Amino acid sequence: MNAYYARKAGVCPKCKATEPRLSRKSSRHLLRQLFYISYRCSVCRFSFWILSLSRLFFTVIAILIVIFVTMILTVEYKHKDAAINPEVTTIDDTLLNLAVQGDSTSQLKLGLRYALSPWDTKDNKQAAKWFEKAAEQGQIEAQYHYGYALLKGLGVIQDYKRAFFWLEKAARNGYADAQFALGEMYQLGVSVNSNNERAYLWFNLAAAQGVKGAANSRDLLVKQLSKAQITSLQDEAINISRNQASAKQVK
Fold first, then answer.
1. Distance (Å, rounded) from C-alpha 238 to C-alpha 106?
2. Confidence (pTM)
3. pLDDT above 80 for 148
């Protein structure tokens, strides 16, 4: 006899007899095993299942605990994936000395090592400090990281205007992740008025460099722009790319 789902315990849904007995009947359905209790009527022998609110409650609590622990263990610095190994995270005296002496590449590396270190040595404040120093010397990757730190408030006071300033610098210098971040700021109206045209432009440039999600973000804006706008923005993107290529050749 097929099992039946009943709303109330204590009453058989078929013959209405009271005080049904617990059953050892098993089920191959996971949800039924997790959230329902099996009963069998002592009169008509009908099997049925009743939702257990206590089981549902404890299962939800367990899921929430797992999600919370996962979030705690997730590395906060998501925009730049990197393998955590001694070569990446070790802060040696040579690197520190070069950074103190003003070498922008060493300052960038030092900032990355503070930002990407394991939990016991991670220091967003120190990371932002060195990113800022390198950014001020024209280190493009550092400009992005410092702008992102300002955008998210990682080791510094959150400041959208300064974040936009540094992210735009890095984006105009051709740094792909900065172009994507700038597109998001224009799309969401963070620090600037929401502007789908500028968002499309920067998403388009980031997509051309293979940034994950940039092409989808760009394509979602197509219906909100005219053909003339899109053509103009594509021409502007080409000009920006050419200027970036020319600047690299000069260096």
1. 33
2. 0.63
3. yes
